[in-house]
Amino acid sequence: MTRQRSDPESAAAVFLLVALAFVAAALLGGFFLGRATKGSTTVAAASSTTSSPSSTTSSPASAVDPRIAAGAHDFVGFACAQCHGLDGRGGVSPFVPALKNLSSVTAAELSHIINHGLGESAKPSHPYMPVWGQVISARQVDDLVAYIHAGLPKVSTATPVAVPKGQGLAVEGQALYTLYGCVNCHGPNGLGGVPNPLSPDKTIPPLSGAAFFKQFNTDQSIKNVIVSGSVIGRAPIVSMPHWGGIIPPDRLNALVAYIKTLKTG
Asked: Which of 240, 66, 63, 206 is nearest to 140 (CA)?
């Protein structure tokens, strides 16, 4: 029997082949592991990207009946909230009722009160419901009634105008002119012109111009007519509301300051 001879070169070759096999296995393992890890990262990123809009985008607001929403905005725009309180909860004046829980008052009754007023007198001594029939449309009255009968719910963006502070009385007064609804009757910039057909002048008077400032030539005379109001007849004649007990003195001063910036001639 022939004895197998040891070959150092053959042993070295075998060792090299084994080493190369281990290196190849390591490389392949790293490749597939990297692919798997990359795949899992992509899924997580995709999941994160997919879920992020839901976390940053607020859910849409609940739908509101358009008539109730319109009534809420009219309630603010026509300054109902300044006498009856925000959301009709009252508390502004003992002479002005809250409007909550009026489901027993019919739509016809509410419409009549809005159009024809309530509690006015020749020389009012306290706030009363003014005549709105020549200023508010029938559709707006219907929307207000729907809003009241719905319980005066909160409606997004149906909020009173912000009144700035620290910017001067005239700037504050300009915001108050909108907040208290003066603009609805006396017009933008106090130019007047809103129809009042059965009144002597046929229109609601302006708060600007030579005639106005001749009649109301002092701060006190302007404040007096705002506080006392002016009833010159019954519905459908629109009358100046009695703001005494509603508008505080500091805001009266601001309103006067704004009115005095309007056209004088």
From this structure: 66
- Confirm whether 229 is domain-assigned: yes
Instruction: Note the pLDDT of residue 121.
Output: 65
Whether pTM > 0.85 for this model: the answer is no
Angle (deg, nearest 10), helices 66-77 and 138-149 = 100
Q: Residue 89: CB partners within 8 Å, gap ≥ 6?
A: 98, 100, 152
pLDDT value for 102 = 92
Containing domain of residue 223, as a range? 169-259
Residue 83 lies in a domain: yes
pLDDT band at residue 61 under the 50/70/90 scheme: low
Planar angle of CA 46, 48, 50, nearest 5 degrees: 65
- Number of structural domains found in the chain: 2
Return the closest-CA partner of residue 99 out of 109, 10, 190, 121: 109
What local confidence, expressed as pLDDT, does residue 238 receive?
85
Spatial separation of the C-alpha atoms in residues 174 and 258, rounded to whole Å: 6
Residue 4 forms part of a structural domain: no
User: For residue 13, what pLDDT band results from cuts at 50, 70 and 90?
Assistant: very low
173 and 144 in one domain? no
